[in-house]
Design goal:
Layout: E1 3-7, H1 17-21, E2 27-33, E3 39-43, H2 54-58, E4 63-67, H3 70-84, E5 90-97, E6 103-108, H4 109-119, E7 122-127, H5 134-147, E8 150-153, H6 157-169, E9 173-178, H7 180-185, H8 187-195, E10 200-208, E11 214-218, H9 223-228, E12 237-239, H10 244-261, E13 264-270, E14 277-282, E15 285-293, H11 338-353, E16 362-365, E17 372-375, H12 380-393, E18 398-403, E19 405-407, H13 411-417, E20 423-428, H14 434-441, E21 445-450, H15 459-468
Parallel strand pairs: 7-8, 7-9, 9-10, 10-13, 12-13, 17-18, 17-20, 20-21
Antiparallel strand pairs: 1-4, 2-3, 5-15, 6-14, 10-11, 12-19, 16-18
Helix pairs in contact: 4-5, 4-10, 6-8, 12-15
The chain binds iron/sulfur cluster (2 copies).
One iron/sulfur cluster binds near residues 12, 16, 18, 62 and 63.
Length: about 475
């Protein structure tokens, strides 16, 4: 979004960084000498500004970028729309009929992934067999045959992830499913998806590691890898449901988020949730989002307002290069220009972080007056919920926070809880990974309850800690 730029000359220190940093040379020195004895800076070419934010970032406080008033912004967007709408625009929200008859079904977590992916409009799956994700691969091979989609059993997980990236550029909604060792192999491909802004979904059914570990046993040992596994330091959207109903609903959500933000989205499950069978309510109609395409628009960021760029598909006739190298808005490589590199990395972060508030999705229980908050993720949330309810019956002021969307991490919500909470407790099916994330956000006592033994955490164990302080 274009911005209104202003310089407060009382705060300007005359460092000249704005002149050097602005890639569009929006600033110039005026002939006027300020009170502090140096030449004043002026906003000479405001229409050139792409709102990259560099000047505000580097300036000592004199420069501010304000959003334009809504009417002015709407005018600019309408002009842009008229300029680019030469062909057939497509994408956005729509409602489609569910492939399943509306009603209640009894299905396992892995089956729910398959049915929900189809409901979300998935037309391509590539994968390699791995326990405990196998039923997803098997289910997709069967259901793709019935629905007319494409299924490939690839030679390994590296091939799988690149196949879904290619399918996505061909205009298909695509996903793969794997577990710990396969997820590790996919990280470089995910990084390409970040850089080339390729929507896709990766389901990681976590098992006890490291390495081949205990292939059939549940764990939550890839929590940090899901966020930080790839190089390049950009944002990742990571979901972790706690029931088969949530697996179904959040698989659809994962596809919608991938399409909206043109980014890989990770749906975490685990060896327990994947094989747990529960009732799932399926409605007759599903709300899905298809990536936006506007003919003639640039296919990559940075966009002026950190919005998600238009995504053409092969055959649309756009002159686009899809590359993992640093590139400009048409995909043209720019592998030595520091400004292009920096702007691109900031933009890839911003296009998700600017929507951080709408990406907060937490289950909360008894937090109004809680002195101790249990922060739990995915399957562990089930054990934690029972323990918190029982501890309440015993008069303990405890509550539960369970982020369904794990990343972007709901930092603001955790900080707000510090008004009453003086201790956070983080039980995990790992040696303790998310406890560090919680610790970073709060100046409170944060207790790790680790259990990296390939078993789900017995709720009575959490209760014992809440009541007796024993783990
Ligand atoms: S970067 Fe800020 S402080 Fe430095 S010259 Fe420009 S306006 Fe002044
Ligand atoms: S936001 Fe970027 S393009 Fe705009 S004036 Fe600042 S540095 Fe220049």
């Amino acid at each position: 979004m274009p911005r209104r730029i202003s310089i407060n000359h009382d705060l300007c220190r005359g460092c000249n960084l704005c002149l050097e940093m602005c890639p569009k040379q929006v600033f110039q020195e005026s002939s006027e000498i300020g009170a502090a004895g140096f030449r004043l800076k002026q906003v000479a070419l405001p229409d050139e500004c792409t709102a990259c934010g560099l000047c505000e970032l580097y300036c000592a406080g004199a420069i501010s970028l304000e959003p334009l008033p809504p009417e002015e912004f709407a005018d600019i967007m309408a002009q842009e729309e008229r300029r680019t709408s030469t062909g057939q625009r497509r994408g956005g929200w729509k409602e489609v009929d569910s492939l399943l008859e509306p009603g209640r079904y009894f299905m396992a977590g892995n089956e729910a992934v398959v049915e929900a992916a189809l409901a979300a409009g998935c037309e391509f799956f590539a994968g390699y067999p791995i326990t405990p994700a196998n039923e997803i691969l098997e289910g997709m091979s069967r259901r793709m045959g019935e629905t007319g989609g494409r299924f490939i059993q690839a030679e390994d997980e590296i091939a799988s992830v690149y196949m879904i990236l290619g399918a996505s550029w061909a205009g298909l909604k695509a996903f793969t499913a794997t577990s710990g060792p396969g997820f590790a192999l996919m990280q470089e491909g995910l990084s390409l998806a970040d850089m080339a802004e390729i929507p896709c979904v990766i389901v990681n059914v976590q098992r006890a590691g490291p390495s081949t570990g205990q292939a059939t046993r549940p764990a939550a040992m890839d929590m940090r890898e899901a966020r930080y596994g790839s190089h390049g330091g950009v944002q990742r959207i990571v979901l972790y449901p706690d029931s088969v109903q949530e697996v179904f609903d959040m698989t659809i959500e994962a596809f919608n988020l991938a399409e909206r933000f043109r980014t890989p989205v990770i749906l975490l499950s685990d060896g327990y949730l994947s094989h747990l069978a529960e009732k799932v309510a399926v409605s007759g109609c599903v709300k899905v989002f298809d990536r936006i395409y506007v003919p003639g628009r640039p296919a990559f960021g940075p966009t002026s307002d950190s919005s998600v760029p238009s995504m053409p598909r092969f055959g649309d006739g756009e002159n686009v290069v899809a590359t993992g190298s640093t590139h400009d808005v048409s995909g043209k490589r720019s592998t030595t220009n520091p400004t292009v590199q920096e702007n691109l990395v900031f933009y890839l972060n911003r296009k998700i972080l600017e929507h951080r508030e709408e990406l907060v999705d937490c289950e909360e229980l008894f937090l109004d007056d809680a002195e101790t908050a249990v922060v739990a993720f995915g399957t562990v949330g089930r054990s934690a919920k029972w323990a918190v309810k029982e501890a309440r019956k015993l008069g303990r002021r405890v509550g539960l926070l369970r982020p369904r969307i794990v990343y972007p991490f709901p930092s603001q919500r955790i900080k707000e809880l510090c008004r009453t909470v003086n201790q956070f407790v983080v039980p995990e099916m790992s040696q303790g990974q998310m406890v560090h994330v919680v610790s970073e956000k709060v100046a409170r006592d944060v207790v790790s309850l680790p259990q990296p033994n390939g078993q789900i955490i017995d709720p009575r164990r959490i209760l014992k800690y809440l009541v007796e302080g024993v783990w």
